[in-house]
Amino acid sequence: MALPDPNTVPLRPGFASRLLNWSTWVVLVGLFVVSLQQTGFDVEALTSGSQDFVRFFRRLVPDWTALPQIWRPLLETLQIAYLATLLGTLLGLPLIFLASYNTTVNGPVMWVARSVLTVLRSIPDLLYAAILAPILAPGPLPGVVALTIFTMAVLAKLASETVESIDPGPLEALRAVGAGRNRVIVYAVLPQIAATMTSFVLYIFEINVRASVVIGYVGAGGVGFLLLRYLNFFDWGGVAALIVVIFAVVLLIDLLSVWARSRLI
Amino acid sequence: MSAHISFHDVEVTYPGGLKALKGVTLDVPRGEFVVIVGLSGAGKSTLIRTVNNLVVPSRGDVTIDGASVTRAQGTALRQMRSDIGMIFQTFNLVKRSSVLRNVLAGRLGDVHPLRGLLGLFPRADVAYAHDCLSRVGIPEKAFARADALSGGQQQRVGIARALAQKPSIMLADEPVASLDPPTSHAVLRDLKRITREEALTTLVNLHFIDMAREYADRIIGMRDGLIVFDGSADQATDQAFEDIYGRPIDESKDLRGAS
Amino acid sequence: MTTAPIPPTPAHVVRTRWLLGIGLVLLLALAVLALVTMNLPTWSRVQSGLARNLVPLLRGFVNPAWHVFELASTSMLETMFMAVIGTTIAGVIAFPLSFLAAGNLLGNARFALPGKGLLVGVRTFPEILLAIIFVAAAGPGPTAGIMAMGIHSIGFLGKIFSDVIEGIDAGPNEAIRAAGGNALHVFLFSVVPQVLPEFASSLLYRFEINLRAAAVLGLVGAGGIGLPLIQRLQFRRWDEVSMFLVVIVTFIIVVDTLSSSVRRRLV
């Protein structure tokens, strides 16, 4: 097979693909410019206002006497995250299996499960909390419910790819044995995905801790409510102390979670 | 004596138009050890899978002791399947589970649903699972992880799992294609011994002619979705095999290139 | 058939079963403990709250208020613009930062630790918290939200980018050096072409996340659709809330779908 004649083979990419590249760049830059305009994002104001900024941040000296007030809401925050992760995983697993083509009951059911999950996934966690808080009475309950729903949606997104990419062989073998769908899932699917799933759940716990820190701001329990109060009273010392505590806790949980996940794989 | 397994003009057409089986009619009496040979794509795997309805025929019917397995659904189908053991070329064990758990999975067709879901098998079942492992020669591997075993051992676990079902039929889809020749012979010997001991009606897909002739009571040759040979091992001469494979099988002629 | 004796279970299996059992019991115990000690409302209070709100909510949700459609759409567009700016700025800044956090480029994995540490610090801070602070500092509006999003995204993108850099094939680097190239050549002709598609894909992924974040930041006053939304939530105007939700969900689903197909074609 002779090498292609260099005089006839074009060395530069065709006109069509270059046009596509150029237009993509034009669109992207245009989008950026329009965005700047429409949001009024004033970089000038930022740099000139940076004096005020610095002055503001100077005021954020932690007031440690606020600590005793912080422990209880902080505990509540962690409890919310824990319960939501646990419940969300338990309730979400059946949904995931219904939404994966190799473990579902039939086509329409899978389609419904997937649609439900897509919609649930499009709503940010704080929004769930904000909507549920007026309904379920402000406090930790709307927080737990909101983050449970959120956990189900996120777990489904992470896990569905895992479930659909397992080895189908053992599934076929167990069907040949005469096992029904549920038993096939318990004996052939769960062992294959257990380690990865646990890793996902730990990751979601991390996310939930971060979320539950803030949902109190909209009335769903946890330290967020404290933050709101400090801000309303201009208690900058309290705000600063709270921020430091939150940062420490979230960092700790993150590190623990990363460590635990590395031990799993 | 009526046949144990009967194929009535079975046709299988896959979506996309591929006709894997073009009208197969066959009777297999109880206790027979049948080996099916043919090229890849001849329809062997498809044929075997119509027996437990893992592949549903587009036309025709497969009956076991007169009862149609093709038309069975739901619980009835699962009950029929629990009476049919199957072993696979790729063993199909749950790699991360223990050997014992894999063998116990064979009981899932019979055991009470709740017990099955929670993994609480009755003591008799656990004892029987250990017993099955002894009969395939690897009782000491019961608590090892399935993927820690060699190929031959894994296939034995597959056989033990099928045995645990207490089946009356055994299906084997290319059981030794992934194993080296000495191991293949060992596994086939075990398979033949066990099916003799349990008087199981057995259908085995094999590639190799010498193995077919050595172990089979009856040999079925398939080509292009049809049965082109049906006779005893003695009747399966080299000439007959050339018909099945559509090319000379003389060792002096190179088989690797297109004929 | 008589029951044959069952061989004893080996010690390590027994130990594993015990550990799993204890682990499960612990998990459940923690859950029960949490439920008991949390300040949960009494069932009657929940019931009265539901009775008061659930019916109007459901009625509002099946009848989205079309008269706020335009407001919702323009707010959602503003939200998208916020996400565009935040993601772009973050991408631009994270790009050079990530090289400082990638072990394989700096020669020794240890040199990357301060860079990685900085990124972890930035990423740990909950985004909304950042937004709340910026609102207190710079006043409400999209600027605070964009800055919060931008900073948080730098942490996220920095980590992903540096992971990508650490995962590239060392082969082409070697080939370029063998052909006589210096470090800059290696960078431009081997590292950059290998990482760009993954970078672009991660950027799009972050944009998807930021779009959701931006929708929410308004709830704390940092611009975007959250602000009109929370007003309506506080006044319990469920039909308008439902219209907003419809707009948000549809928008996000469309963007997600487009982004996924582009990302598939990139990598």
Structure characteristics:
heterotrimer; A: 265 residues; mainly alpha; MetI-like fold; 11 helices; 79% helix; C: 267 residues; extended
| Shape verdict of chain B | globular
CATH fold name of chain A: MetI-like fold
Radius of gyration over C-alpha positions of chain B, nearest whole angstrom? 19 Å
CATH superfamily of the domain at 1-83 and 205-248 in chain B: P-loop containing nucleotide triphosphate hydrolases
Helix content of chain B: 25-40%
Q: How confident is the prediction overall: mean pLDDT of chain A?
A: 85
Measured by DSSP, the beta-strand proportion of chain A falls in under 5%
Q: If you compute it from the alpha carbons, what radius of gyration of chain A comes out, rounded to the nearest whole angstrom?
A: 26 Å
What is the CATH class of chain A?
Mainly Alpha
Strands ordered across the widest β-sheet of chain B? 6-7-8-3-9-10
Q: For the record, what CATH class of the domain at 1-83 and 205-248 in chain B applies?
A: Alpha Beta
Second-tier CATH architecture of chain A: Orthogonal Bundle
- As for the CATH topology of the domain at 1-83 and 205-248 in chain B, it is Rossmann fold
The tally of helices of chain B reads: 9
- Please work out how many helical segments of chain A DSSP would assign: 11
What is the correct CATH architecture of the domain at 1-83 and 205-248 in chain B?
A: 3-Layer(aba) Sandwich
Order of helices and strands of chain A: HHHHHHHHHHH
Indicate the mean pLDDT of chain B: 88
Q: Tell me which oligomeric state these chains represent.
A: heterotrimer
- Give the helix level of chain A as a range of percent: over 70%
What do these coordinates show?
The complex is a heterotrimer of chains A (265), B (259) and C (267). Chain A is mainly α and 265 residues long. Helix content of chain A is 79%, strand content 0%. The longest helix of chain A is centred in the C-terminal third of the chain and has 35 residues, at 181-215. Chain A is globular, with a radius of gyration of 26 Å. The mean pLDDT of chain A is 85. Chain B has a domain at 1-83 and 205-248: Rossmann fold (3-Layer(aba) Sandwich). Helices cover 34% and strands 23% of the residues of chain B. Chain B has helices spanning 44-51, 74-82, 99-104, 113-118, 123-135, 151-164, 181-198, 209-215, 238-245; strands at residues 5-13, 19-28, 33-37, 59-64, 67-68, 84-87, 169-172, 201-206, 218-223, 226-232. The radius of gyration of chain B is 19 Å and the shape is globular. Chain C is built from 11 helices and no strands. Chain C is mostly helical. In chain C, helix 3 runs parallel beside helix 11 (238-266), helix 8 packs antiparallel against helix 9 and helix 9 packs antiparallel against helix 11 (238-266). Chain C has a single domain, classed as Orthogonal Bundle (MetI-like fold), CATH 1.10.3720. The chains are: A mainly alpha (265), B alpha/beta (259), C mainly alpha (267).
